# Entry
Amino acid sequence: MATPRRDMTIELPIGFTDETGRIHRRATIRKMRGHEEALMYDTTLSTARLITKLIHSCLIRLGDLELKDESIVSSLYTADRNYLLVEMRRFTLGDTLHTSYLCPGCGQTVSAMENLGNLPVRRLEAQEQLSDIDVQLVDGYEDREGNTHKALVLTLPKGSDEEFIFGAAAEDPMRAQDALLLRCIKRFGTLPRATLEAYGVKILRDLTMGDRQILQHTLSAEMPGVDFVRTIRCERCGSTFQAALDTSVFFSSN
# Structure
C-alpha cells in the first residue's frame, strides 16, 4: 500500500512578489485537519478572514519566505487565494464535488457533480509579473467641474482588500462589490487620489450601467487563476446557461 502524501507542492497562478522584486510561486500545502474545520464554525470570522486563516494554517512554505504571521497570506492576490482553496480541497477531500445551480429559465435546481481537477487555470508565464490593466469607458465620469474621465488603470484585488470590505458584504452586496472595485482603481482619468477616496463608491454609482459592466468584465477577463464559470444544462427546460461554481460548499459534507 502506498504511503499517503503528507504535503503537496503547487505553482500559484500569480505569486507573491517580495520587497526585492523576487516572485514566489512554489507553495507547499498540507491536508486540512480538525483545527481548520473548527475555524469554519467561528461566526466571528468574515469569509475573507476565514480564507486567510485556513490558508495560513495549511500553507507550509511559499518559496523561501518565512510565514510567521498572516500578513503574506492577506497580501496574496485573490486569484492565488482561490487557487490555494481549490488545491487544499482537492488534497484533503478529493476532486469530486456535489453541487447545484439555479436555472434562470425555469427556476429548477440543477444538481451536478464537478471534478475540481478539470477546472481551467490561467497562469502567468515564468518570471512574468502582473501588469496594470488599462480600461477605456464609453461614457465616463463627469466631475463637478464638468470634466469627463474615461481612462482607468486597474490592479487585481488581494486578500487584504476583501478583508477591508467585509462589513459591507453582509449588509449591502452591491456596495461591497463597488468598495472592492474602488480599491482596485489605481488611476481614474486625472482625478486626484484624494478626490477618488473622498467620493468613494459614489463615483462608481454615477457611472452608466454599460461602463460598470465594462469594468467588471475587464477585471474578470484579466484575472489569472481558476475559472469557476461552468456551462450547465437544465434537464427540465432544456436550456443551457452559465453559472459560477459556489466555493462556499467546498468543505461541506455531501
In short: The two ends are 27 Å apart (CA to CA). The longest strand covers residues 7-17. The mean pLDDT is 93.
